[in-house]
Every structure is written in C-alpha cells, then in structure tokens.
Specification:
With 374 residues, the chain is mainly alpha-helical. It folds into three domains: 69 residues, lambda repressor-like DNA-binding domains (434 Repressor (Amino-terminal Domain)), CATH 1.10.260; 223 residues, no CATH class; 79 residues, no CATH class. It contains 16 helices and four strands. The protein has a four-stranded mixed β-sheet, sandwiched between helices. It is elongated and about 80 Å long. The two termini are 38 Å apart.
C-alpha cells in the first residue's frame, strides 16, 4: 500500500461521492473495472497516467486537484474552475487574495459537508432570468425572484433562512480589517447552478441584509451578461440623466426593490396616512425597522417611490451621514434586526459529525471554522 500517497485515492473518492456516483459508475465512465478503481481509492494501487487523465476529464477538474495532499486544497483547486467570483463591472475592485482564499476554504468546507451527507447541491431558485437593463427592469426582476420564492410582497423576517431554504449557501464571518471596505463577496457555481454568498459580519445587520440582496442582484446580472455576451448597460451619455444606470446601481436597485417591494412600502405608508411632506425622523426610524433595512436605504427607497419630498429626503440623508461619521457607521436608531447566521452550514456540520468515517474531514472543517472565527 502506498501510504504516503493514499491522499490520491481519498481525493478520487471524495470527488466521486460529490457527484453521487457509485464506484461502478465512475469505473464505467473512465473505462476500467470496479475492482481496480476500488484499490486505487483505498490507496493499494496508484492510478496510471491514462486513468488520471480520464478521471480529470470525467470529473471535470484540473489534474492537480487529484494530487493535492490536503482534501480542502484539492477542493479549492477544483473550485477554481467550478466557482466564479462575480464581478459585474470591469473596474470594480477585486478582493485581496487573503479574502478570496478564506472564501475558497469555506466553499471547500461546504462542499465537503454536502458530499458527506449526499445532499442536493443545486439551487431551487433560478439564477438566470432575462430582464430589461433599466431601473424598471430591476423592479420587475426583484418581483420575479420574490414570486419564485413564493413570498409575493410580504415583509420577510429572516432572509437568511429564506435563501438557505432555496439551497443557496450563505456564510457570515468577520472579514479581515484590511478587507473591511467589502460588505460581501459572491461566487456563482455553473456546474450546480448555485451560488455562495460571503457577508462581512463586521457590518450592521441592516447592511449585511442589503449586501446579501445586492450580491444576489449581481449574480443575476452576471449570468445574463455571460449568456448574452454583452455588458448590458451602455456607457452613459449626455442624454442619460443625472443617475444613468450601470451594473453596480442596477444591483443595488434590485436589492432595494427586493427588500422593499413598492406595493408593501406604499401600503404601509398609506395605512399610516403619511404624506410626502409629513415624515418625521422618528417615523423614518420606526418604519424602516419593519423592513429590516438601514435608515439610509429606507429614505432612498421612499425617494424613488415619490413618497417623501426632496427637501425632507435631503435633510434625513444628511442627518444619517452625520450619524455615520460620529458613530463609525453605526445604524441610526440602533440595530434591532437579529440574523440567524450560518444556520445551514452548522446544521450540516452537526449532522455530518455523527458519521464515523468522516471524522478526519470534519476535524479539518472545524479547524477552518476556528481559524476564520465563524
């Protein structure tokens, strides 16, 4: 037995299991018998060059992923081709390598848990939906996503649970201070038509929630760009107005419409008899809590829907910015929203922890969790 190279067999077994293939199925796909493949997975024999090539082609992974001595590293190498960092604008800042590395480690951990338990990897929510690339198109896109989720215009208490119920992977952890300018990072996984969302838990719950919705918007925009092979949003010209739409603004407008559907906001405001010129600061703080978003996002949404005068919105936005400067971006009116973070991840970890044959992999995941202080 090649004890020093046993990790090669472990990697092959892990990648096979992640695709829910039996030993016989993979053996048939790569053109060898089940017995020889079983000996390779157990570390009794080493694969030939032809078998290595066939494995990489069949599993759709880079060859060096099979030779990574650490399973998490093997998955990270495979994820480099499977998961795509979502970037909807060419000039957007790319997260530093340390943050991307942390995200890839967590994607690897998540994949390992899904593999051990044999759970569904595909999202139950369509992540490729055609839309018109303007502000009205973003409103309609948000409505389509909410319809697919079965929520209509209802105000949702726990968006994290909602995302996770549709198979999306959401993880909150404290980004390193050097990456604190990032509210979140997302990855699209074409092979499973699913996504990973990594949210900076250093931010307030309201900002975390808005970031999550924005990243979903980016993924929907990103996928349409890839399908159409088109940037979608043209370069602004003199006729574009004061705020021409671009991919970044489109994603944020999607988030606002998703978290604060126009019908829900208008109904709430109408039931209270608030007119555009009768808003008070206390009313803004009270009602924004119902939607779980920041006072800033709420005032901008009121402005978009013509539910507040220009003068009052300007006054409140300035008040909010002053508050941010004085409190290091603390939430106006304090944060009352409590997010049930990382629920699915730790549920999977707890369930997989009872499987004796997976203890070595579970221990490595726990080390990752401790290192990143999730």
């Amino acid at each position: 037995m090649f004890d020093d190279l046993k990790f090669i067999g472990d990697n092959i077994r892990s990648f096979r299991r992640s695709r829910n293939w039996t030993l016989a199925q993979l053996a048939s796909k790569i053109g060898i018998q089940e017995g020889p493949l079983g000996r390779i997975e157990r570390g009794v024999n080493l694969p030939s060059a032809k078998v290595i090539y066939n494995l990489a082609q069949t599993l759709d992974i880079p060859t060096d992923a099979l030779f990574a001595p650490d399973l998490s590293l093997a998955r990270a190498k495979a994820a480099e081709t499977d998961a795509v960092h979502v970037n909807v604008e060419p000039d957007m800042t790319v997260p530093q390598k340390t943050l991307l590395s942390a995200c890839k480690s967590l994607m690897s951990a998540f994949h390992t848990l899904e593999d051990i338990l044999g759970v569904q990897k595909h999202a139950l929510l369509p992540l490729s939906i055609p839309f018109k690339p303007d502000y009205a198109g973003m409103e309609q896109l948000a409505a389509q996503v909410r319809s697919a989720m079965g929520t209509g215009d209802a105000v949702i208490f726990d968006y994290l649970e909602l995302f996770e119920n549709f198979g999306l992977r959401v993880l909150l952890f404290r980004f390193m201070k050097s990456a604190d300018n990032f509210n979140g990072v997302s990855f699209f996984e074409p092979v499973h038509q699913n996504a990973f969302f990594f949210i900076n838990s250093r931010k307030s719950p309201e900002k975390q929630l808005f970031c999550l919705a924005t990243e979903l918007g980016k993924i929907l925009i990103f996928n349409q760009m890839k399908i159409r092979k088109d940037p979608l949003f043209p370069e602004p010209d003199a006729s574009s107005g004061p705020r021409p739409i671009n991919a970044k603004r489109a994603a944020k407008h999607f988030a606002a419409a998703f978290l604060m559907p126009d019908t829900a906001v208008k109904t709430t405001v109408g039931q209270l008899g608030i007119t555009p010129d009768t808003w008070t600061w206390d009313l803004v703080l009270r009602i924004k809590q119902r939607f779980g978003i920041s006072a800033e996002a709420f005032v901008y949404r009121l402005k978009e829907l013509n539910l507040i005068t220009k003068e009052l919105s300007s006054t409140y936005i300035q008040k909010i910015k002053t508050h941010y400067n004085q409190t290091d971006f603390g939430e106006a009116g304090a944060s009352r929203r409590i997010l049930n973070a990382n629920g699915r991840f730790f549920d999977l970890l707890l369930t997989a922890g009872r499987i004796k044959s997976a203890q070595q992999e579970i221990q490595k995941i726990k080390e990752t969790v401790e290192k990143l202080k999730i």
